[in-house]
Structures are given as structure tokens and as C-alpha cells.
Here is the input.
Amino acid sequence: MHIHNVRGQLFEAAERVLLRGGPDALTSRAVTEEANCAKGVLHRHFADFDAFLAELVLDRIRGIEDRTTTLRGAAGTGSVVDNLADALRDLFGPVTVAIIALITFRDGLRAQLRDRGLTGIPLAVQGTAMIASYLTAEREQGRLVDDADVDTLAPTLVGAGHMLFADRASAPPQAAAVRAMVTTVIAAALLPSRP
Here is the structure.
């Protein structure tokens, strides 16, 4: 049987396995069984399983890069705190949290990502760039103080956000908890809203 969009189907299958069983459960066999295809299909499209996982991470990174444009475009509208809280909830959805755990779990995947020029913790790094871009735009809009330290605020928001969402066994944090964290982190940088 011919499979359309093999990469996409394998990525979706991998995400389902990862969400259901965590990094330990993610094997090439588990992915191909979840995708209902022969194990050889994965190996025809990717050099090995870590190369497949690296492409999965890169696919998620492209999604963050796409969302960066949308978030930056929201500068000057709505509430800065709400925009940031929404962006963090979107960034740290269950799949991203599971993939970050996978990256820390698999040495071969980290090596593949380094070979592709990715440093730090991929997804968190791109999330930080997304938040920094938005904060810069808000500073330019005059909704943050002129000397707002975007290079400190962005990783602080992403790090604190990851800590809120990192527990895979519990429900995601309440929206109010995310909003409270954002409010605390950016309080000194946020200008009062204009009438």
C-alpha cells in the first residue's frame, strides 16, 4: 500500500507514542507500528532512527519559527501579559514538553542536532528567540520600558514556563498560574497601559 506524506505520518505516529509512553517507549518499531506501516519504510526515508528524530525536532522548530511572525505581529494589541502567557502555553504543549525530554534522554539525537548546527536545548532556544522577538516589538511599540532587557527576560520566561509545564504526569498548569508567572517576570519592564 502506498503511503502519502510518509514523513508527516511517521512524525505524527512518533508524537503519539511519545505522549503515550514517554522517551523510553519511542523506538522505530513503535513508530512504524503506530503508523501502520512496515519498519523498512522509516529506514528508506531516514539514515537511522536518530536522524528521523532529528527531523522530527526540526519540523517542530519550523512550527515555532512560523508562530514567531504571528506573535510579533500581535505587538501593540491586546495585553502584553496575555500575549506572552498564550505564547508560552502554545510553546509548551504536551508534544514539545515530551520532545524536550526526548532530547535530554538520547545522546544520539543530541549529536544529530549538533551536527545540524543546533545548540542548547532545541525548541527552548527557538522559543526564547520567539519571545525575544515579541518583547523587542513591544519595546518598539512603547509598551515596555526603553531599557527592558529582552535578552534576560526572554530566557527567564521560557525557563520558568518550562518549569511550569515540565511535569508530564500532571495536568498542564492553569492559565492563571502561567499569567501570574509572566506578570511577575515582566513587571519591572511593563509600562502602564495607555487609556
